[in-house]
């Protein structure tokens, strides 16, 4: 008979015993030690059938294949661009992945992207040694102009985006800002100064309260309290 | 490298606001001074301005006066930009940023003549008190200059001399009531120029795009006691006068918090 | 002669008062402070991050680097001159060894996890306080950790076995003294730091290690509470 020592959505710390007995399965972030299932990191408990999983609450972004990220160009070379991915690993944008246009050999690559530019890109390959390649070929992938960047906790990105983009759509609708949230924890926001500022405050609130229930409702009323109503957006930059 | 950010900040400044919604000459909140945070120091204070946090501690020593000032004690400010406080700082000997910070804070205190150096002399040419102020960054989120200046002065205010034993050596564990007499409270305020706007208390993003800055040390009555221009762009005389006005005004506000 | 009473009527198995807080340094990936008596340790974790120069990189794993440092005004006597000493280098190294067994950095080849430990004030037990704070900062940084690490010094003062020696006990002159800093993985009871200065009998050591484990179990509770407190705290606007 297994005894589960924690509840769904409990926050647990490394070394905490989550369950005793062999009926449950150690899921992500946990491990088995004899009869016990033990927390292998700080995280939020998720009871998923027989499995006990831990959802990370913090941690740096690590590049994954197919992630859409916002990165900053840090170097331009013969073969392409080196970008900062807001992770321990930089990435390479090779010339052939930069644009659907034809780029002649020896062309000045800075006319496409130059140092300091921010781009929305997709990771198409990560090796075991974490060599990362990105591409600009795909819907929504582009250079960002204007607006501002904010850093967000990368593990909170799914909550900021919401189910099928519902959360970020609501913030966009209610503040009238254009918003793109990269999976690597960089968000781009463009709108009226006060609304940009409000959108950032909203994102900070989501980061802080992401583990509490009723998040969508709370965020909606927070925006309403700050004078926002559901309006039509001028632009739509769905990621 | 930061031209998009710079343009964005300038657009905001021209409409009278900043990235975080502040007015141009507003400090971030909260501004907090906590005294006596380190009981091993003879005086200490932790200062918070927004997310920026520094801690200053005073230690005293008895040493031989310098040959050219045999009747005076001494004072020294050192700063450490800890790698604990920012991903941008590295371990190792202090870089030029830390050295400038220390010297700017040091000069404001020294040149204010607020410290009675003669009063620190115990025995002419033989023994005098030396005051060492260490300012340490705990969280580096912009405007370390003003935070360091405020922390150094707060730590001096908190300082009490330790007792001396029969042999004239310091008994560090025994503090007396004796303070370091200060004739004034010199504080530095840094005014930064971005485009054609002047701001105080820049955050990290703003610091990346500053054209020029002027750190102005001033006394309670508005007398100036030190200045340091920084940044790569020149300043017109008119700019300087305007920046001084802002700095003196802001120093008065900060001084009320001591 | 015998050692009779501790300062503030503290029990021989009792630590000094403890206080911990997580998330105290905004720019760090993980951070915490830990106070025990008059010793106060801050720890900040940065990483995993890019490691320079390149020859230090290990393509099979991320590496851990610990940096123990006293603020210049944190000693009870004269100012501590900034810059590393032999003592701080050795403590940095043993801190690294104390923390490494619970980490698995293989997921992050070629990177470094930097742990910076700093003290605004100290009065005995600083390396243990630093390790205790660093373990919280590492958990806060979201790294995979199979256990926490809690650390305390135990020892003897004359005829008594004591937990968490203070300065007066380290400097006791009425009889033999031993100071034994110990770091423990609280769940498994395994030991990751063990040093000793002083004179003890082997039988005493056995008792002392049991006392260290019991004290570390209490320290673990303090760590746990501080970590959970950070993630359930919601700042009101």
Structural write-up:
- The complex is a heterotrimer of chains A (239), B (258) and C (237).
- Chain A is built from four helices and 17 strands.
- By secondary structure, chain A is α+β, with helices and mostly antiparallel strands.
- In chain A, strands 9-10-11-13-12 form a five-stranded mixed β-barrel. Chain A has a four-stranded antiparallel β-sheet with strand order 1-3-6-5, with no helix packed on it. A four-stranded mixed β-sheet of chain A has the order 2-7-8-4, with no helix packed on it.
- Chain A is flat, with a radius of gyration of 21 Å.
- The C terminus of chain A is likely disordered.
- Chain B is of the alpha+beta class.
- The radius of gyration of chain C is 18 Å and the shape is globular.
- Chains in contact: A-B, A-C, B-C.
- The interface between A and B is medium-sized, with 13 and 14 residues.
Quick summary:
The complex is a heterotrimer of chains A (about 240), B (about 260) and C (about 240). Chain A has helices spanning about 155-160, 165-175, 195-210, 215-225; strands at about 5, 10, 15-20, 25, 30-35, 35-40, 45-50, 50-55, 70-75, 80-85, 90-95, 120-125, 130-135, 140-145, 150, 180, 185-190. Chain A is α+β, with helices and mostly antiparallel strands.
Briefly note the structural class of the backbone of chain A: alpha+beta
Strand content of chain A: 25-35%
Query: Treating each run of at least 4 consecutive H or I residues as one helix, how many helices of chain B?
Result: 5
- Oligomer class: heterotrimer
Biggest sheet architecture of chain A: 5 strands, mixed, barrel
Question: What is the name of the CATH class of the largest domain in chain A?
Answer: Alpha Beta
Number of domains of chain B: 1
Instruction: Indicate the overall shape of chain A.
Output: flat
Poorly predicted runs of 5 or more residues of chain B: none
CATH superfamily of chain B: GHMP Kinase, N-terminal domain
CATH topology call of chain B: Ribosomal Protein S5, domain 2
Biggest sheet strand line-up of chain A = 9-10-11-13-12
């Amino acid at each position: 008979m297994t005894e589960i020592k924690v509840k769904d959505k409990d926050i647990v710390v490394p070394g905490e015993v989550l369950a005793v007995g062999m009926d449950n399965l150690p899921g992500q972030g946990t491990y088995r030690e004899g009869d016990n299932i033990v927390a292998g990191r700080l995280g939020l408990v998720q009871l998923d059938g027989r499995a006990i999983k831990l959802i990370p609450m913090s941690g740096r972004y690590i590049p994954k294949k197919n992630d859409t990220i916002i990165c900053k160009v840090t170097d331009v070379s013969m073969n392409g661009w080196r970008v900062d991915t807001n992770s321990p690993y930089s990435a390479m944008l090779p010339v052939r992945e930069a644009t659907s246009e034809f780029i002649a050999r020896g062309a000045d690559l800075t006319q496409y992207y130059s140092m300091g530019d921010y781009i929305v890109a997709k990771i198409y390959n990560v090796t075991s040694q974490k060599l990362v390649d990105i591409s600009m070929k795909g819907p929504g992938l582009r250079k960002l102009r204007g607006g501002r960047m904010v850093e967000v906790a990368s593990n909170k990105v799914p909550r900021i985006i919401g189910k099928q983009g519902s959360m970020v759509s609501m913030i966009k609708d209610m503040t009238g800002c254009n918003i793109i949230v990269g999976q690597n924890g960089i968000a781009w926001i463009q709108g009226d100064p006060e609304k940009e500022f409000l959108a950032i405050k909203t994102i900070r609130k989501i980061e802080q309260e992401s583990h509490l229930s009723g998040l969508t409702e709370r965020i909606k009323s927070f925006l309403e309290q700050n004078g926002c109503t559901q309006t039509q957006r001028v632009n739509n930059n769905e990621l | 490298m930061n031209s998009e950010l710079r343009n964005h900040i300038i657009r905001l400044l021209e409409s009278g606001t900043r990235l975080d919604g502040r007015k141009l000459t507003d400090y971030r909140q909260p501004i907090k001074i906590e005294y006596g945070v380190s009981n091993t120091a003879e005086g200490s204070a932790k200062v918070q301005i927004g997310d920026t946090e520094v801690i200053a501690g005073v230690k005293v020593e008895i040493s031989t006066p310098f040959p050219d000032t045999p009747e005076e004690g001494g004072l020294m400010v050192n700063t450490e930009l800890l790698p604990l406080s920012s991903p941008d700082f590295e371990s190792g000997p202090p870089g030029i940023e830390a050295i400038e910070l220390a010297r700017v804070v040091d000069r404001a205190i020294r040149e204010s003549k607020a410290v009675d150096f003669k009063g620190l002399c115990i025995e002419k040419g033989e023994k005098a008190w030396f005051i060492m102020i260490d300012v340490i960054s705990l969280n580096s989120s912009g405007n370390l200059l003003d935070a360091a200046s405020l922390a150094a002065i707060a730590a001096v205010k908190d300082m009490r001399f330790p007792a001396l034993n029969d042999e004239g050596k310091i008994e560090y564990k025994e503090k007396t009531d004796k303070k370091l007499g200060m004739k004034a409270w010199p504080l530095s305020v840094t005014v930064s120029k971005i485009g054609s706007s002047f701001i105080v208390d820049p955050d990290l993003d703003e610091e990346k795009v500053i054209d020029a800055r002027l750190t102005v040390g001033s006394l309670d009555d508005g007398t100036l006691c030190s200045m340091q221009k920084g940044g790569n762009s020149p300043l017109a005389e008119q700019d300087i006068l305007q920046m001084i006005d802002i700095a003196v005004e802001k120093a008065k506000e900060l001084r009320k918090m001591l | 002669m015998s050692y009779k009473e501790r300062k503030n009527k503290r029990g021989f198995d009792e630590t000094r008062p403890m206080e911990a807080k997580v998330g105290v340094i905004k720019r760090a990936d993980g951070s915490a402070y830990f106070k025990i008596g008059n010793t106060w340790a801050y720890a900040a974790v940065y990483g995993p991050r890019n490691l320079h120069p390149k020859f230090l990189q290990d393509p099979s794993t991320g590496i851990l680097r610990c940096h123990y440092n006293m603020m210049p005004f944190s000693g009870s006597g004269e100012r501590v001159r900034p810059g590393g000493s032999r003592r701080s280098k050795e403590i940095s190294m043993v801190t690294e060894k104390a923390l490494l067994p619970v980490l698995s950095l293989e997921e992050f080849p070629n990177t470094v996890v930097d742990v910076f430990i700093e003290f605004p004030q100290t009065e005995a037990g600083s390396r243990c306080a630093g390790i205790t704070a660093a373990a919280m900062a590492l958990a806060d940084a979201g790294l995979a950790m199979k256990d926490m690490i809690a650390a305390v010094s135990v020892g003897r003062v004359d005829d008594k076995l004591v937990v968490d020696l203070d300065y007066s006990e380290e400097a006791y002159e009425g009889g033999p003294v031993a100071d034994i800093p110990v770091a423990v993985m609280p769940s498994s009871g395994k030991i990751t730091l063990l040093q000793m200065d002083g004179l003890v009998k082997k039988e005493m050591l056995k008792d002392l290690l049991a006392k260290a484990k019991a004290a570390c179990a209490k320290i673990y509770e303090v760590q746990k509470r501080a970590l959970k407190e950070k993630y359930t705290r919601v700042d009101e606007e």
